[in-house]
Amino acid sequence: NFVVIATRNEGKVKEFAELFGAKGYKVRSLADYTDLPEIVESGKTFAENARIKAQIISAHLHVPVLADDSGLCVTALGGDPGVYSARYAGENATDADNNARLLQALRELDNRIELPAGEEHPPLLSEASFVCALTLIDPVANEVIEAEDVCQGYILHEERGASGFGYDPLFYIPSLGRTMAELTMEEKNELSHRAKALRMFLDQLPDQTN
Ligand code: ITT
After folding, report:
1. Rounded to an integer, what distance in angstroms lies between the CA atom of residue 196 and that of residue 192?
2. Cβ(149) to ligand 1 under 6 A?
3. Enzyme catalytic residues
4. ipTM of the complex model
5. Does the pLDDT at position 154 exceed 90?
6. 81 lines ligand 1 (CB under 6 A)
7. What share of the chain is helix, strand, coil (3-state, %, to 5)?
8. Hey, where are the domains in the chain?
9. What strands, in cross-sheet order, belong to the sheet with 2-5?
10. Mean pLDDT of all residues in the chain?
11. Spelled out in words, what is the top-level CATH class assigned to the domain 2-204?
12. C-alpha span between 137 and 135 (Å, rounded)
């Protein structure tokens, strides 16, 4: 039993593998296939891009496919980088490039966030939220299921932590006093935008662990 995820992002694959693994499913990603059609993420919203990825790959493979489009929306930057999160610092940007670009953009604004008095937090530059849109397309049953969720936090003035991927080292969660990159995968999978958006899919999936 396996689920095909229309992604080339290894960080996403690891998280999905853990989440689906709990129900006894393995995951395959685009790295497991050759000769796939090109995907152009031309949508203006996360949901549109998730639909594009799921449509192209499910039509090609003729099996149910789940796609994830996600990103970081930073309040002080008017919601940027948003759907451009993966390419924020340029077409072939690494996670480190994108994080550096984000810190630079926020330092230029000289924005500071004050959290309620009585709490000790490191310097925070802006409110932010991670967003994850999921689309599952079953091309045989002609079925489309969509979900979207968010995870709220703040952008820290410097990177902290080595787990996770992408913007995780800059994404600070005040209630935990840690960045997303300082959480174990198990902890991230309890509260992340991706885990929350996926919960409905997981709840509907028959358990294959016994
Ligand atoms: P696929 O399209 O192949 O899935 P991608 O990396 O291009 O891979 P997106 O277009 O959805 O995926 O871009 C998502 C970007 O948003 C990703 O590159 C990360 O930088 C960031 N992102 C998404 N989820 C994240 C998370 O849980 N933690 C940190 N950064 C995240």
Report:
1. 6
2. no
3. 69
4. 0.99
5. yes
6. no
7. 40, 25, 35
8. 2-204
9. 26-28, 2-5, 65-74, 124-138, 143-156, 171-173, 178-179
10. 96
11. alpha beta
12. 6
